Amino acid sequence: MSVTSRGALSALAAFALLAGLSSGIASAQVVVARGAMPAPIVEVVPAAPGAGYAWVPGHHVWRGGGWFWVKGHYVRGVVPAMPAEIVEVIPLRPSPAHYWIKGHYAWDEGRWAWHRGVWVR
Question: Residue 111, Cβ neighbours under 10 Å: how many?
Answer without folding.
Answer: 10
